[in-house]
Specification:
Helices cover 21% and strands 45% of the residues. The protein has 130 residues and is an alpha+beta fold. The protein has one domain. It is globular, with a radius of gyration of 15 Å.
């Protein structure tokens, strides 16, 4: 059984995904490794073919959640990258290293975004509102 801090977080993600219209969940996985660690993975396919992949490894440290790593990837129907936020340590010259954001034509400094903000950004782009 997961502590409330982790289970509430996962419940919040699941609830947000349920509010997205014109999409279906290809994959949804909560891998509980220990009572203090969970890996989360999801693939959300939008009706227009856009794809959002969410991956996080999260642990509890005391009374705080800590992200061990993350990758939020969003692409269009032709598999062209729209954005990907991650913390793979391959751009050491960026101010926010190892955190960064890949765009279609460049990589920029960026702090780790909230997964809920990423879901909203992808929803807006996929619906043509951005």
């Amino acid at each position: 059984m997961l502590p409330d801090l982790l289970s509430d977080y996962l419940d919040e993600i699941a609830a947000r995904l349920k509010t997205i219209k014109n999409c279906y969940i290809e994959k949804y996985e909560e891998e509980i490794l220990t009572p203090e660690r969970v890996n989360f993975r999801a693939r959300i396919r939008f009706e227009n073919g856009y794809l959002l992949e969410l991956n996080e490894a999260i642990v509890l440290e005391g009374k705080r959640r800590k992200h061990l790593n993350y990758r939020y990837h969003f692409q269009d129907e032709q598999n062209h990258l729209i954005f990907r936020d991650d913390d793979t340590p391959h751009f050491p010259n960026l101010k926010t290293f190892p955190h960064h954001k890949h765009l279609s034509d460049k990589v920029i400094s960026a702090k780790r975004p909230s997964i809920l903000d990423v879901i909203e950004e992808a929803r807006q782009v996929a619906s043509g509102k951005m």
